[in-house]
Amino acid sequence: METNRRIGRHLHHSLLLVVLLTAGCGSTARNQEAALPKEQPGNAAGYKEFLTRVQAYADLHKSIASTLPVLKSTDVPELITAHQQALARKIREARSNAKRGDIFSEEAEKAFRSAIHDEFQGPQGHDARTTIRQGAPLKEMQLRVNEAYPDGVPFTTVPPTLLLKFPKLPDQVAYRIVGRDLILLDAEANLVVDTIPGTIP
Predict the structure, then answer these.
(1) N or C terminus of the chain: which is more exposed, having fewer CB within 10 Å?
(2) Is residue 180 within 8 Å of 161, Cβ to Cβ?
């Protein structure tokens, strides 16, 4: 009788673990679905792969940031700069082998290029070009993955209509346009996370 009760408890705990794990996977899938643009079904596979990789980067960023002193709004600029440099240094060390395409995988790059092409060939193309020109984009700029974004070098924010075609990003990173390149930038660490070169018309 006692043996049966122990087996019953064991089965109950096992089933509970399965339910919890399944719920966790479902939550991750729902979060990823929510981050996908609704009108880009043809790019869904590439975007999902991108979201998995960019979330892994965001988790790394958060893990490293948690080891550093917490900044306050009253902190002096020197402390803020020191914090940024320390964060960037630790991230670079953790991604010492980082290279272009680690986040923008081949499949993801195809999805982004397709979305950008459709945007600039569509009815919003003129407005998108106007937005980029207003940002005073650079004609040429060679940026290296896992290196600091150069001080004083301007960039252009992604036109709102184009941004709607891209997956929603974690708070730790942002899209930027530099010259004709699409950049994934860690704004807090001022690091170039990844790039897609020559994709902006």
Answers:
(1) N
(2) no
Residue 23 has pLDDT above 60, yes or no: no
Q: What is the amino acid identity at position 69? A: P
pTM: 0.76
Nearest-angstrom CA–CA distance, 114 and 107: 11
Structure tokens at 176: 């930027």
- Domain boundary assignment for the chain: 100-201
CA 144 to chain centre: 17
Q: Are residues 200 and 116 in contact, defined by beta-carbon separation less than 8 angstroms? A: yes
- For 100-201, CATH gives 3.10.450.160
How long is the chain?
Answer: 201
pLDDT digits (tens, 9 = 90+) for 182-194: 999 999 999 999 9
Tell me the pLDDT of the chain averaged across its residues: 80
Q: What is the CA radius of gyration of the chain?
A: 21
Supply angle C-alpha 99, 56, 162, rounded to 5.
Answer: 75
